[in-house]
Design a protein that fits this description.
Elements lengths: L27 H7 L2 E6 L1 H7 L15 H6 L2 E9 L9 H18 L4 E3 L3 H9 L3 E8 L8 H9 L2 E5 L29 H13 L2 E3 L5 H10 L5 E5 L13 H10 L2 E4 L3 H4 L1 H27 L6 H12 L7 H14 L5 E3 L21 H9 L4 H28 L3
Parallel strand pairs: 1-2, 2-4, 3-4, 4-5, 5-6, 7-8, 8-9
GO biological process, one term: proteolysis
Pfam families: Peptidase_M19
Protein name: Membrane dipeptidase
């Protein structure tokens, strides 16, 4: 889904070099093909439900399908389970279950191309069978409808991470998407007691705690609460693009200290300050066009859908030139230097940003370009493999190890 564009924020940053670049004798193609490539966020799930899209079909304007994944040597994809709160109010769990079912249906329909995976071992098993490993992550804690029981049910169904918020704050956690907005309730400590209970229960289950979209105070509350490494499934560096959704250098280091990983988002408005500024300048026109559509639909007795609103957003966004591919690599490079090479990864947001990707990235087929660009900057084959998926696999294993310890502890 197209992320909410919030106002500017400020920070100071200081790079701490922590990456030693070593030239590799292997070709970029060989390095990329030798890696377990993992992308931790694609919104293709919405297409599966709303458009009855099949992953075996041509892209039809999208970013992800079986063909592009194979061309990009993508081993594992986390399908985002995202429920638009304003269109599904009171039906959050119903929509969540429909999205989860859609992923399972694709695996059942194409057993030779994709299999469900729920652990690092499952990812490796799918890779050995030359199949795409399909995993799931909930985007937005509103999906649990304030119920730990639902949280546990989602884990039983295969969900392996959850962002505590989307662009909307909820009863127990604050979102970066509406921080400072008048009339939006704000949790003073970042997490309520129930919110801390959610984090601890996720730790106990082995569901990774995802701080993408969280407000800064909620981020720090999570860092203080979680017993397992935390992840940012699709976030960028605020030092390079001053978006509240992006992470300050202090936050990058905190994730690294927790043992976690920051998966870089490919959305142009999180990568490029110039692109972001142009998008913000358009926002009043976009809001006006959306309201006009809502008013017309209401007069005609129709309901506005997510896709109706997205079309308006895309119409305006497409007027802005896409930023250079190098901006994406700059964010990976910055995170690797500030947090350390063991704490950077890829979280594309494919099919969630309306094609607003940097130049050179049009689908999952273009993932090898990232490896080539990193190696051109002097990254070793080992470092590339870490960024492409090795770092995330480590964190996934650690989250499961923490869960095993918590489950075996005396109650």
């Amino acid at each position: 889904m197209l992320p909410h564009i919030a106002k500017q924020s400020t920070q100071t940053s200081a790079k701490v070099p922590s990456v030693t670049h070593t030239r590799s004798h292997l070709s970029p193609e060989a390095v990329h093909n030798s890696a377990i490539v993992i992308d931790t966020h694609a919104d293709t799930t919405q297409r599966l439900v709303d458009e009855h899209y099949d992953l075996a079909d041509p892209l039809h304007g999208g970013d992800f399908n079986f063909a592009s994944a194979k061309q990009g040597n993508l081993a594992a994809e986390f399908f985002a389970i995202w429920v638009r709160p304003d269109l599904c109010k009171g039906q959050e769990a119903h929509r969540t279950l429909a999205l989860i079912d859609a992923v399972y249906q694709q695996a059942a329909k194409h057993p030779g191309k994709m299999r469900m995976a729920f652990s690092p071992a499952g990812i490796y098993a799918a890779h050995r069978e030359h199949k795409l490993a399909a995993l799931m992550g909930i985007e937005g804690g509103h999906s649990i409808e304030n119920s730990l029981g639902l949280l546990r049910d989602y884990y039983r169904l295969g969900v392996r991470y959850m962002t505590l918020t989307w662009s909307n704050s909820i009863d127990w956690a604050n979102s970066s998407g509406d921080e400072g907005r008048p009339g939006v309730p704000h949790t003073p400590d970042g997490l309520t007691p129930f919110g801390k209970e959610v984090v601890r229960e996720m730790n106990r289950l082995g569901m990774m705690v995802d701080i993408s979209h969280a407000a800064d105070d909620t981020f720090w509350a999570v860092i203080a609460t979680s017993k397992a490494p935390v992840i940012a499934s699709h976030s960028c560096a605020r030092a390079l693009c001053d978006a509240p959704r992006n992470m300050t250098d202090e936050m990058l280091r905190a994730v690294a200290k927790s043992g976690g990983v920051i998966q870089v988002n490919f959305y142009s408005a999180f990568l490029s300050q110039a692109y972001r500024n142009a998008l913000l300048a358009q926002q009043p026109q976009v809001d006006k066009a959306k309201q006009t559509l809502r008013d017309r639909y209401k007069a005609e007795g129709k309901e506005v859908t997510y896709r109706d609103l997205e079309k308006i957003e895309l119409e305006y966004a497409n007027r802005i030139p896409r930023p250079p591919f190098s901006d994406l690599i700059d964010h990976i490079d910055h995170i690797a230097e500030v947090a350390g090479i063991d704490h950077a990864g890829l979280g594309s947001d494919f099919d969630g940003v309306g094609g607003q990707l940097p130049q050179g990235i049009d689908s999952a087929a273009d993932l090898p370009k990232i490896t080539a660009a990193l190696m051109a900057r002097g990254y070793s084959a080992q470092d590339c493999r870490k960024i492409l998926g090795g770092n995330f696999l480590r964190v996934f294993r650690q989250a499961q190890a923490v869960a095993k310890q918590m489950q075996s502890a005396p109650q």
